[in-house]
Structure formats: C-alpha cells, structure tokens
Design brief:
Layout: H1 2-8, H2 12-16, E1 20-31, E2 34-45, E3 49-56, E4 59-65, E5 70-74, E6 77-80, H3 83-94, H4 97-100, E7 109-115, E8 118-123, E9 128-133, E10 140-145, E11 154-164, E12 167-177, E13 180-192, H5 198-204
Antiparallel strand pairs: 1-2, 1-13, 2-3, 3-4, 4-5, 5-6, 7-8, 8-9, 9-10, 10-11, 11-12, 12-13
Length: 211
C-alpha cells in the first residue's frame, strides 16, 4: 500500500530525490470567538533540518532545529529550544510527507498495515503516526498522531494535491485536535530542491538571523 502511495505521488525515486522543500502558507487558527490569521514559511532540509517562521498578529516567532538542538525566537527574545518544543519539531520532521511515504526504505522505521487503508508507522526513537490512504487511488487522506500538550489525537487532513517538481504535494490541510478543528493551512507556493545545503544553512541559521 505504501508503494502505491509512492506511485500516486510521482514515484519513489522522484520523492527520494527531494533534498529540500520550502513553502509559504496562510494559516487560520481557530480561537474562542474568532479566527486568527498568520503567515508561515517552512524550510525542510533532509534528513532533519527544519525551520519555521510564523508571523502572528502580535509578532513573529521562529523555530530552528537540526534534530539535536535548536533556537526559538519571538517577542521574548532568543533562547535554546526547550525540550518539549524540540520533541514537537522532531515529530514534525518524522511526519514530513516526503519522508513519511518512504518509511519502507528507512531501516529505523517500521510500517504495519492495520486494515481499512491505515498504515501504522513508527521509528526506533519513539515517533509514531498513522497514515490513512485511499486504497483505490493510493492518495494520502490524513495523518494521525499524539502530541504532548494537545487535547487528544491530532489529525491532519490533506486536500488539493498538485504537481510540483515532478511530485504531488498537498496545497491545503486541516488540523483537528481532540475532535475539534484547530487550524487550516493554505499553501501559496512550494519550492523543491532550491539548492539548500546542510553546511550553508547550519551556518546561516544563527542567532543573528532571528533578529
């Protein structure tokens, strides 16, 4: 089933060839009595570099991690990434769609079919998620996982898949926490294999860069 997903998204080799992925998105967060809008920019550099810049109504927040450590910058200044946030970032890297659908190629991951188009994917370092697939088309429908601090199960539902750089990526997804809609992300644009390198980005993403 996972190989069918790979085929539906453009082929395993094309997905495996993705070394870096960027996107700009508009995010609508459900808050009591109102919807808060934000701008988000994500940078993912395989296998484990991740940076997120979020422009909120009350200021900008940036998170950077190389999987072992990182930085958190916002209205309260710059600090080392707290352990709980680092774990959340690791989880997000684990669930990067271009990595998740290639889990059968990762010796540190285990993939089990649990029925009804659901694949249970876990890693040796304790990360896990369920990938639900349309068995007729091979297209991913949603990813479910547990996250510290979130009320109940977190579900990301994907839609509006389009071709970018030879592979198909979702241009919209909704996040549901504890059975209630939490946020919706609408992608403005993707960049695939734009030339980011581990050495250059590690040097560039410094404290000064978070000013």
């Amino acid at each position: 089933l996972l190989q069918r997903v790979q085929q539906a998204l453009g082929g395993a080799e094309k997905i495996a060839a993705v070394k870096d992925l960027q996107y700009h998105a508009t995010v609508e967060v459900e808050t009591p009595g109102a919807v808060m809008k934000a701008k988000q920019t994500n940078f993912y550099l395989a296998p484990s570099f991740l940076r997120q810049d979020i422009e909120l109504p009350f200021g900008k927040q940036s998170v950077y991690s190389d999987d072992t450590s990182g930085l958190l910058a916002g209205v309260q200044g710059v600090q080392a990434l707290p352990a709980q946030v680092l774990k959340q970032v690791r989880g997000e890297v684990f669930r990067q769609i271009v990595r998740l659908v290639l889990s059968d190629r990762d010796p540190d991951r285990t993939v089990n079919y649990t029925g009804s188009g659901v694949l249970d994917i876990s890693s040796k370092d304790g990360e896990s998620a369920q990938l639900e697939v349309d068995e007729k088309t091979g297209m991913p429908l949603r990813v479910s996982y547990q996250q510290a601090g979130a009320p109940g199960l977190v579900v990301e539902e994907y839609s509006d898949w389009r071709e970018v750089g030879g592979i198909r990526l979702p241009y919209r997804w909704s996040i549901i926490q504890g059975g209630k809609k939490f946020a919706t992300s609408s992608i403005e644009d993707y960049k695939v294999n734009s030339g980011l390198t581990t050495e250059a980005e590690h040097a560039h993403w410094t404290v000064q860069d978070f000013s």
